[in-house]
Design brief:
The longest helix has 17 residues. α1 runs parallel beside α10. α3 links the parallel β3 and β4. The chain is of the alpha/beta class and 249 residues long. The chain starts with a strand and ends with a helix. The chain has a single domain, classed as Aldolase class I (TIM Barrel). It contains 10 helices and 8 strands. Strands 1-2-3-4-5-6-7-8 form an 8-stranded parallel β-barrel, surrounded by 7 helices. Bound molecules: phosphoenolpyruvate. The site of phosphoenolpyruvate has 14 residues, from β8.
Length: 249
């Protein structure tokens, strides 16, 4: 079976309504002109831009997801957004446990797992982010850290997407070597299998400074089923070029 790649754009805290409409229209137009078989495109704008993105991307085939969600479906949690609300809008996915949330919002593995479970219960596919810091990489702790994060933040017997994002590669222009990506993705795939109930839609993404120039090499690594793209997803041409790299494999 040919694998289906997922190319997901994490816009982070970027995206006014006007920016959203322009970027989404451009992505939709590129995909219309050049449909990509075996690639799902997903954009994850900030909460305030989700409705606009969904409207602009209607019938384009481009999926829309959230960048985070609360671990409860509803309740007295001022300022939070639940996975039920994301599903209600029309989202298909939600990113949980991004390293920026683990770092700045002090999110623990246990909380990330609760969020992923809540997302699944709401009918969303969680994209669960894991990855080591530079210090952990340099002290040979990468595989132990990955193992701990998988153990702590991934629900069992569920179809989820896992995104391996070395913290030191996010937004820095630095990327791990192909050998390093190969090693970590193989370890994640092995662990994921042991968690049970892995269907064809379960995926492992690589994330961290993915650009059109390095996408093909990274996406060609075994057990790399797509990419989580930050900076390069804010421009339709570079986001689409990454998706084309996947389609060409
Ligand atoms: C990210 O934020 O998930 C990410 C991978 O960012 P960038 O592509 O900019 O490194």
């Amino acid at each position: 079976m040919t694998k289906k790649f997922l190319i997901a754009g994490n816009w982070k805290m970027h995206g006014t309504l006007a920016f959203t409409e322009t970027l989404c229209s451009e992505v939709a137009a590129l995909l219309k002109k050049e449909p990509l078989k075996q690639v799902d495109l997903l954009v994850c704008p900030p909460f305030t831009a989700l409705s606009g993105a969904l409207k602009t991307l209607q019938k384009s085939g481009v999926l829309v997801g959230g960048q985070d969600c609360h671990h409860e479906p509803h309740g007295a949690y001022t300022g939070n957004i639940s996975p039920v609300m994301l599903k209600d809008l029309g989202c298909t996915h939600v990113i949980v446990g991004h390293s920026e949330r683990r770092q700045y919002e002090r999110e623990s593995n246990a909380l990330v797992k609760e969020k992923a479970e809540a997302a699944l219960a709401a009918g969303l596919i969680p994209i669960i982010c894991i990855g080591e810091t530079l210090e952990e990489r340099e002290t040979s702790q990468t595989l132990a850290v990955i193992e701990r994060q998988l153990e702590g933040s991934v629900p069992r017997d569920a179809t989820v997407v896992i995104a391996y994002e070395p913290v030191w590669a996010i937004g820095t222009g630095r990327v791990p070597t192909i050998d390093q990506v190969t090693e970590v993705h193989a370890a994640i795939a092995k662990k994921q299998k042991s968690f049970g109930s892995v269907s064809g839609t379960a995926k492992i993404l690589y994330g961290g400074s993915v650009k059109p120039s390095n996408a093909a090499a990274l996406l060609n690594v075994p057990h790399v089923d797509g990419a989580l793209v930050g900076g390069a997803s804010l421009e339709a041409a570079s986001f689409f070029a990454i998706a084309k790299a996947a389609a060409g494999l």
